[in-house]
């Protein structure tokens, strides 16, 4: 495999490239500026040379005499440093020139000097000045003087001083090498000694790891802005595509989720409800850098737990009924042993009347079989715990559809269980639970009240938001069932609230 270059060598190469580009740019600008300055100066100088030659008495009076004109032209050329000085008559014949082969030839350059106007400009690779020669007596144009200087090449100016150019190049190279080495050392310290290809591989591995795991991962900086989020977390939290870079407070999240993401709610396996999905979140702070939050979907597990709780409640109800029947049988057996046959008859009649009365009361008010069966079963469980379960005076419910019936069973079951848990801490006090189910035109209203202490006013909202992690018997707080009740009510467009020991749920239908 081809050996990879180190970070220092790569920075050195790029620094040298940058330095050379800068030198080239500066050199090009210098050459352009030097050329402009040279042309401006040479134009003025050539014009002055041509004017001086054209103003001499010999040139003005002896235009046709080459022997007298040549010395004047050469003297001016030698003194001024011009490349050539030409004297041309009105027929455009060259009378004097440093090049003997050019003498007698025709000047083919267009110029305004023959019209009496001086001209300065570029002719080929030279800068020329054309000045008319006026006859001393008639003051008419009888010829022109051409003074020219060859324009140097692009690099001639730089090559005139090779030592300075080499010195500047060496200084630039030393600065570039030193700067690249210092920069490479600083960058390497900041990247923990990793080379660029190692950093690239590390980022690729991180991306593959983040998007490959089944857990959701969210990275936050010290200001609670999202720095990274994998696909699973984006789906679980229903985050928008531009969530990265935004603050948690700017996103449309519920208060409970914000508290967990920002660290205001601490603890392991924090439970949060997000758009009908139950999530378990764990937040790990990173010193000075923010935090990393991992999350898992617990909706299915919670549903299984709820089904298990329902089975457990049914088992408890059957156990309570069996226990109640066993006590009654023991009582009947004892009365028979004592030959108190009349008391046996009265006792059986009393028991049968009480059960028949509760069944009749439930059946007359509740027309849905599932809800009626639940209330009849809960009465046995309440009796075992020394609690009286009674119906509200205005209770009335007809047969409803299966979906609403299932929601009513879940709401009533959880509210009665929470009330039983709340009353379990009362000793020696009269304990009762009143259940009211009222069917209206567009909704069913469920009201459950008990003789317990109730929920503190400051916890009226908290019991629904933090109900996942609290236990019903602890300081009047309720359990996970309240969160399920709230979700069922909100799904139907209803609501659930608590005031003291009275819970009210509204389920539209």
Structure description:
- With 509 residues, this protein is an alpha+beta fold.
- It folds into three domains: 7-158, PAS domain (Beta-Lactamase, 2-Layer Sandwich); 215-297, PAS domain (Beta-Lactamase, 2-Layer Sandwich); 301-508, Histidine kinase-like ATPase, C-terminal domain (Heat Shock Protein 90).
- Helices cover 49% and strands 19% of the residues.
- The protein is built from 14 helices and 15 strands.
- A five-stranded antiparallel β-sheet has the order 2-1-5-4-3. A five-stranded antiparallel β-sheet has the order 7-6-10-9-8, with helices on both faces. A five-stranded mixed β-sheet has the order 11-12-13-15-14.
- Helix 12 links the parallel strand 11 and strand 12 (432-439).
- Helix 1 runs antiparallel to helix 5 (162-190) and helix 9 crosses helix 11 (369-384).
- The chain crosses the membrane at residues 12-32.
Strand content: 15-25%
**CATH C-level category of the largest domain:** Alpha Beta
Cross-sheet strand order for the largest sheet: 2-1-5-4-3
Question: What is the straight-line distance between the termini?
Answer: 71 Å
The gross shape turns out to be rod-shaped
CATH topology of the largest domain: Heat Shock Protein 90
Q: In which range does the helix fraction lie?
A: 40-55%
Instruction: Look at the structure and give the mean pLDDT.
Output: 80
Main sheet summary: 5 strands, antiparallel
Question: Count of helices?
Answer: 14
Give me the secondary-structure category: alpha+beta
What's the CATH architecture name of the largest domain?
2-Layer Sandwich
What is the CATH homology-level superfamily of the largest domain? Histidine kinase-like ATPase, C-terminal domain
Protein name: histidine kinase
Keywords: ATP-binding, Cell membrane, Kinase, Membrane, Nucleotide-binding, Phosphoprotein, Transferase, Transmembrane, Transmembrane helix, Two-component regulatory system
Catalytic activity: ATP + protein L-histidine = ADP + protein N-phospho-L-histidine
Organism: Lentzea guizhouensis
């Amino acid at each position: 495999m081809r050996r990879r270059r180190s970070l220092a060598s790569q920075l050195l190469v790029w620094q040298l490239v940058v330095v050379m580009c800068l030198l080239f740019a500066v050199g090009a600008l210098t050459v352009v500026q030097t050329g402009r300055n040279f042309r401006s100066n040479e134009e003025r100088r050539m014009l002055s040379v041509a004017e001086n030659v054209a103003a001499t008495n010999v040139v003005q009076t002896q235009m046709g005499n080459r022997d007298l004109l040549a010395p004047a032209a050469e003297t001016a050329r030698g003194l001024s440093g011009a490349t050539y000085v030409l004297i041309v008559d009105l027929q455009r014949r060259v009378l004097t020139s440093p090049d003997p082969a050019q003498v007698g030839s025709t000047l083919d350059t267009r110029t305004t000097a023959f019209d009496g106007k001086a001209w300065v400009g570029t002719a080929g690779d030279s800068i020329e000045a054309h000045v008319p020669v006026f006859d001393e007596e008639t003051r008419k144009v009888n010829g022109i003087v051409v003074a020219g200087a060859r324009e140097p090449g692009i690099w001639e100016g730089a090559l005139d001083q090779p030592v300075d150019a080499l010195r500047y190049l060496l200084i630039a190279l030393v600065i570039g090498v030193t700067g690249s080495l210092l920069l490479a050392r600083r960058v390497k310290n900041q990247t923990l000694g990793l080379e660029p290809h190692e950093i690239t591989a590390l980022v690729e591995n991180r991306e593959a790891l983040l998007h490959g795991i089944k857990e959701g991962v969210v990275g936050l900086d010290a200001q609670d802005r999202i720095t990274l989020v994998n696909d699973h977390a984006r789906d679980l939290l229903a985050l928008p595509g531009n969530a990265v870079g935004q603050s948690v407070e700017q996103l449309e999240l519920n208060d409970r989720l914000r508290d967990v993401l920002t660290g205001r709610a601490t603890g392991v396996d924090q439970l949060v409800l997000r758009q009908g999905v139950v999530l378990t979140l764990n937040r790990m702070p990173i010193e000075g850098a923010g935090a990393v939050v991992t999350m898992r979907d617990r909706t299915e597990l919670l549903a299984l737990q709820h089904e298990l709780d329902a089975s457990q409640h049914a088992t408890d109800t059957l156990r309570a009924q069996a226990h109640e029947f066993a006590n009654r049988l023991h009582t009947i057996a004892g009365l028979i042993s004592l030959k108190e046959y009349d008391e046996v008859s009265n006792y059986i009649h009393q028991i049968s009347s009480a059960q028949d009365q509760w069944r009749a009361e439930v059946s007359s008010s509740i027309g849905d079989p599932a809800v009626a069966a639940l209330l009849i079963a809960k009465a046995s469980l309440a009796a075992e715990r020394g609690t009286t379960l009674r119906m509200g005076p205005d209770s009335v419910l007809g047969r409803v559809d299966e979906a609403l019936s299932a929601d009513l069973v879940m709401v009533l079951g959880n509210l009665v269980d929470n009330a039983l848990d709340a009353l379990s801490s009362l000793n020696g006090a009269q304990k009762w639970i009143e259940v009211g189910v009222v069917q209206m035109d567009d909704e069913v209203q469920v009201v459950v009240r008990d003789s317990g202490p109730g929920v503190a006013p400051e916890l009226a909202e908290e019991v629904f938001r933090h109900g996942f992690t609290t236990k019903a018997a602890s300081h009047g707080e309720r359990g996970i069932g309240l969160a399920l009740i709230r979700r069922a009510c909100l799904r139907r467009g209803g609501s659930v609230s608590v005031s003291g020991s009275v819970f009210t749920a509204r389920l539209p239908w």
